[in-house]
Design brief:
Length: 239
Amino acid sequence: MSSALVGLIDDLFPRARDTALNADSARDWKPDRPNVYCRRCGASAGRGSTTDKGCARCIDSRPAWSDVTRLSQYGSPISTWIVAMKFQRQWTWGTWFGQQLAQVVRDGGGGGDTGDTVVCPVPMHWRRRWLRGYNQADLIARAFAKSLDLPCTSLLRRPKATPPQTQVVIADREANLRGAIAARPIDLKGCDVWLVDDVKTTGSTLNRCARALKQAGARRIRVAVAAVADPKNADFKIL
């Protein structure tokens, strides 16, 4: 087999070596306990520094979701794994993140669900999905749903391509998403929705998604993400 063909296969499919490396590097890692972050916005917060109304970062905001479940703050080592998943075609991390999030929920970090609960990934425009080969939020959502025995479906779509949020100044992020996210024609009346993504940063994308789901009739939106990033952190620039 030629080296060029080997390189092409490596680009298109994760290698067994990568999968083994993933498992080894994450073997001793543990997700954050729910009491080390704000359950309303997902930001890291010391014990006793949050209330039912949120923490100092979110108490004056009105997110469209009810609560956030995360694995970790965005930083080493989880930032390395997320970058590998998004930009190095190591998509098996998506399955691992989904399974870990499901375990957090089962352990009590995400509360109980009713029979009318569905899992939905944050959508990706078809052009970006074609370039990347997959939507990492969809990979995480499907593994999360399978582990919790919940249905998973793409309730949202991205009819308009927009620049990545990390390339837009924070003040312009809401405007950047205007008209970019919409609910599919489905009646969600009486349903709870787990909205799943890889990273929450300012929350603009998740808020837009949650509002669209509510307009479609969803009763409650809960957010599950692999990591929550601080926009002031240097790591935020490579998301």
